[in-house]
Input
Amino acid sequence: MKKILQEFKDFAMRGNVIDMAVGIIIGGAFGKIVSSLVNDVIMPGIGLLIGGVNFTDLKVTLKHAVIEGGAEIAPAVTINYGSFLQQTFDFLIIAFVIFMMIKALNALQKKKTEEPAAPAEPPAPPADVQLLSEIRDLLKEKK
Output
C-alpha cells in the first residue's frame, strides 16, 4: 500500500501533472470570462440585429404546463434549443480564442528556434602564421 501511495505521489508531483492542473483551473476561469462575453456582450447585439430575440428564451413546447387552482401541477415539457445555440456560440468563441493563443505561442517558439546563436568567428591566426600565409601567397603569384 505504501508503494502505491509513493508512486501516486511521484506521479502527482511531476511537472507535467501540476502544469496540467494549473491549465485546467485557468481554463475554467477563462471559460467563465468568455461565456460572460458571449452572453452579456455578443448575444444581445445579435439578438437585436435579428429582431430583439433572446436566444436562451427560444424553445419548442412539447407539452404545456398543467395548472389547477393557480398551482402548477405538472411543469411544461420543452426543447430548449436557444440554450443549445448559446452554448454552441460559447464553444466556438472559446475554441477560436484558444486557437489564436496556441498559434501565437507556436509562432514565438518557432521564432526562438529559428534564431540560433551566431557562431563565434574563429580567432585570428597568430602573427607568424599570417606572415607565412602572405609569403605563400606571394610565392604562388610569382609562378
